[in-house]
Amino acid sequence: MTEATLGAPGRAKLRRLNFHVLGPLLALIVLIILGAMLNPNFLSYGNVTNVLARSAFIGIIAVGMTFVITAGGIDLSVGSMAAFVAGVMILFMNSLIPYLGIGIPLIMAGMGVAIITGFAAGWMNGFLISKVNIEAFIVTLGSMGIYRSLVTWLADGGTLSLDFELRSLYRPVYYDGFLGVSWPIIVFAIVAILGELVMRHTAFGRHCAAIGANEQVARYSAVKVDRARMATYMLLGMLVGVATIMYVPRLGSASGSTGVLWELEAIAAVIIGGTVLKGGYGRVWGTVVGVLILSLIDNILNLASIVSPYLNGAIQGVIVILAVVLQRENKSAD
Amino acid sequence: MTEAVLSLDGISHRFGPIQVLFDVDFDLRPGEVHALIGENGAGKSTMMKILGGYLAPSEGDVLLEGKPVRFASLRDAEAAGIIMIHQEFNLALQLTVEENIFLGRELWRGPFLDHKAMQAQSRTLLERLNCPLDPREKVSNISVPSRQMVEIAKALGRNARVLIMDEPTAVLTNRETDILLEQIERLRAAGTAILYTSHKLDEVKRIADRVTVLRDGHRVKQADVGQLTEHDMAEAMVGRELSDLFPDKATPQDETVLEVKGLTVPGHIKDASFKLHRGEVLGFAGLVGSGRTELMEGVVGLRPATGSIKVGGKALKPGSVLAAREAGLVYLTEDRKEKGLLLGKSLRENLTLLALDRFTRVAIDSRAEDRALTRAIEEFDIRAGDRRMMAGNLSGGNQQKLLLAKTMLAEPDIVIIDEPTRGIDIGTKQQIYGFISRLAAQGKSVIVISSELPEVIGLASRVVVMASGRIAGEVEGANITEDAILRLAMGLSERRAEAV
């Protein structure tokens, strides 16, 4: 009964090629050219490394967020969760110094704690959302407040700092690298590539998209909806842990203001990348492009003095809204 | 002869390179019911959309009382008194009946909405339809047939001169259909021009004055209904001679493959027991709401249920669709758009969703998926313009075939098919009947739930009849008659099923 749309796929595909697939990529290329024209240092090794390394935290989280959103969910708690994980990790490492001494084992233990804490926090979100059946927005709005307040409490309103000697040992995880590429960039790249493969080529990725597109159909198709949905939050929590591992050596501290608004940046990156906010369709490489677009804007505004860097947020906001408008344009062709 | 109120003159329409209507002439007169029939994909929807002002034709004119018109928007068409009722309703589920009826043309008293007047008028409209609904009820709380009535009340409230109805009876029970047809007669007597599509030819025969048949975008026939038999209409639609609609029935074997004992689905089913044999087509009949769907959803683990379910002698783990599938038991839903297919996804992703693990080691083997799609397209005769198209762009019949293909990809031994031919045309129906009977001949077992009695009677070698959440009885072999089934379904006969 839908002859009306018989001709649409061809056109829709063309349009999707224009805006949906190439749009974010084109925007990224334009930004790079713009940056290079405005400041000769833009493409220097130092600047590129700096931009990429700083994108890595949001980027790693955004990859996980892509799965959550694709499956029709949302997680507002990741910024607070990162702060909380960082706080727990620092406290734990400091308190273990007498037992393990300052060395690689202690750092490994700290990393383990970060990942476990993130995983547990994600499990909690996922459990409340898929087993207790509370809206994702509500659950994660709640846990956002909880984690933020917990880390402030742990730090007693101040800052939790890693033991000085330990910090010097841990620092290279952020500042050094392998063959000239810094560790955060390498980790981000690995997470992104694995994420893309999982999303596109595994049953889990396919199930996420199916659940986001129509939960009923997924249920009737023998997909374990609850389990897959929980898995997306657990994956995201674990990636928050990974991001924290890369973040803590940068400043060596955590406080109530660590990771503020990360959740919004991560969600914005996912949306700019072409993942549908309602769920049903997601792509990890788009998210990576989205993250890069957001950090390049920041970087360019800081390097060039045409527009005040204070307007960074405004420009990012415009980009997010524009991305969604383009998404809708594509939809009306269906 | 009265002059046409709305007509089409040499209409052609194409979507991109695909032409879907070829030089179609058509006229609709005041006070007539004009049936538009054709197979899925024949161009009915497009033609209705052009008439209703949703689509501008590529060529040709739409004439309103003899003068060419071009509606810039739906609102224009509505203002001209042309109202279209879609198969998928245009109702706001969270609003009340009254708010829906008056949506976009609310009555005001001063700066405030005049709820009293709107409720009173809604009540009058609904009374005219013999539909005792409370106008203050939320639409999400009322049944699908009632929603249909609300749509019609909404159209009546807008003083429709031309009413375009896309398969209005597809979701209605016989009794509700009767009420609707009465209403249509009343509207006709009042001079409304009604365009009506349906796959139910007996209904067309009963209600329509004239009938237009579309096939592959061409108008192949237009005649007074009196000049055509149902068989004539069906052949005009299909374009070939129709042999027997139903294939021969296979003889079931003795082996029991599914045994359900004392199954209770809270709120729906009480203490249901039945058996299914190898190679059997078992029909499930009953009125809408008698619990047939709920029972089967309980059996395959889509609803919480208590009782014993044995597949091939082994107890089935309850509450798990996956466990049922692994035991070789699958359920094909009646609601292909909401529960069966991902309309916004490709054919390939839809096809393999149920049996995705068969295509996966660590990663999904998309080449194997592609091969499966090629086979499915061939085996099930899925007519897709482009194999990369979205499932939602297939016609209803082809969606049903895709759903069948998806289900069969799980290689089940027992298939439960709920309303196998709802809303699909007669040619496709025949294909699906043939398919079901071939399954049985291959030694698989099939349960067919259907609200169309001829379908159950024509396919099944045994029929279980349900009434108000219980199994009311069963009929077998030569005893399968409409009369016997209806008596059980209405609770007139107390003959219980033999010891199951």
Question: What does this protein structure show overall?
Answer:
The complex is a heterodimer of chains A (334) and B (500). Chain A is an all-alpha fold. The N terminus of chain A is likely disordered. In chain A, strands 1-4 form a two-stranded antiparallel ribbon. Chain A has a two-stranded antiparallel sheet with strand order 2-3. In chain A, helix 1 runs antiparallel to helix 14, helix 2 packs antiparallel against helix 13 and helix 12 runs parallel beside helix 14. Chain A has a single domain, classed as ABC transporter involved in vitamin B12 uptake, BtuC, CATH 1.10.3470. In chain A, strand 2 and strand 3 form a beta hairpin. The longest helix of chain A is centred in the first third of the chain and has 31 residues. With 500 residues, chain B is of the alpha/beta class. Chain B has two domains: 233 residues, P-loop containing nucleotide triphosphate hydrolases (Rossmann fold), CATH 3.40.50.300; 234 residues, Rossmann fold. Helix content of chain B is 32%, strand content 25%. Chain B is built from 17 helices and 22 strands. In chain B, the strands form five sheets. Chain B has a six-stranded mixed β-sheet with strand order 6-9-10-3-11-12, sandwiched between helices. In chain B, a hairpin with a 2-residue loop joins strand 1 and strand 2. In chain B, helix 4 packs across helix 5. Chain B starts with 5 loop residues before the first strand and ends in an 11-residue tail after the last helix. The chains are: A mainly alpha (334), B alpha/beta (500). Chains A and B meet through helix 1, helix 9 and helix 10 of A and helix 1, helix 10 and helix 11 of B.
